[in-house]
């Protein structure tokens, strides 16, 4: 199982090893086999450009997932640490919890979950909350 966490944010530092360990535990708990997942921690400007280029939305977002293969769990998850920090403050929890939440959300997208409608959104939120514990 190839799982990498890379932080390209210029200012915010996080414990990449702890996030990687957490994700490995959740992957095992879910019973999924992955080929490769890369988690890239970035800033609002970088994720805004990705959001504009790939979704046509010219604004930052919290998390984006890009699947490389429909038949294998293989892809990239981008998380904006700027947006994650804002959301954590608004929700009253720490940045690490918000990053774990967003990483799980992105991983669920990679394994085929979709939150484009209310039913899909509700299911993803339930699973994310369950996995966070």
What can be said about this structure in brief?
The chain is α/β, with parallel strands linked by helices. The chain contains five helices and four strands, in the order E-H-E-H-E-E-H-H-H.
Question: What does the model show?
Answer:
- There is one protein chain.
- The radius of gyration is 14 Å and the shape is globular.
- The chain has helices spanning about 15-30, 45-55, 80-90, 95-110, 120-130; strands at about 1-5, 35-40, 65, 75-80.
- Helix 1 (about 15-30) packs across helix 4 (about 95-110).
- It has 5 helices and 4 strands.
- By secondary structure, it is α/β, with parallel strands linked by helices.
- The chain has one domain: 3-Layer(aba) Sandwich (Collagenase (Catalytic Domain)), CATH 3.40.390.30.
